[in-house]
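Next comes a concrete protein, fold included:
___
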Amino acid sequence: MNLVNTTPTSVVDRRIDKVVPLVTPAELLADHVLDERLTETVLAGRRAVTDVLDGTDDRLMVVVGPCSVHDAAAALEYADRLKVAAERLSDGLLVVMRVYFEKPRSTLGWKGLINDPALDGSGDVNSGLRTARTLLLEVLSRGLPVGCEFLDPITPQYIADTVAWGAIGARTVESQVHRQLSSGLSMPIGMKNRPDGSIATAVDAIRAAAVPHVFTGIDASGRPAILHTRGNGDCHLVLRGADSGPNYDDASIEGALELLRNAGLPERVVVDASHGNSRKDHKRQPSVAAEIGAQVAAGNQAITGVMLESFLVEGRQDLDPTRELTYGQSVTDACMSWETTEAVLTDLHAAALQRRAGKTA
């Protein structure tokens, strides 16, 4: 039976300029295949992340990379450098490359490579999805596990099979849609505290995502579907600081662990060294990471990971159509340079080894 939309045009799409067909997940995945070798990289990455979170692997996870990828070539050069460092430090660190494509905006601004790959407001989402998936496969081909933030609830159908660690951001952690989404995702998910500093909200999100849900979405063919999830027991807390200041000190971490304990959840945290914890100053990230590392070295087993914002060139730049962009520099939040990042990773590695030595002494 052919279904015809009989809704009068006077009451629908009054503010829609045009509708562009979206490539289906099945079409995109068929064109950009996750082969057996890359599949094993994803699965090995997920197992490693889960083992670190559960404490069966005593390494420290480090999710590190650009605030948001805007240039695939620069991101791959970064991946090449990170791969060398990850191998060198692999006895103490589990390195996951941060490959973020979607940017939540408080007001206005560039929404990320998937939504606007040309960086000009043209909004060619089909091209953005293809560019993003191609880049993810290239990063995996280098043997690096990938971390992404999930913002749009449809996007995971196109890229989630490549991701070893996911995040729900501070602005969406209270969203029922994102809690339901997390309950069905196949990888561990970090829940960030709200920008106002509320950790209880993230703890609620972890509890909500751990149980089954039923909600609407799309299937691989792009058809509307009802999704029944099993619940995701690998969700965990990410402390990212607040608008009012940091929350990575001993007292803040202990307070977060108490909230997790009271909720009957595993006492484990990942600490973001950027955002509120660095007071949005990329030059403070190394000192924040050093203070987190000191807690790790002193034997804190609850700190299972650290997040860092890093790119080839330090700082940030504005999108300006009148001038050429600086290669390898962020167009969103300011990042540490690669040279600084390498030094921070080395110090975190030493902290992880010291924690292990103290545990076995």
The longest strand covers residues 303-309. The chain is about 35% helix and 15% strand.
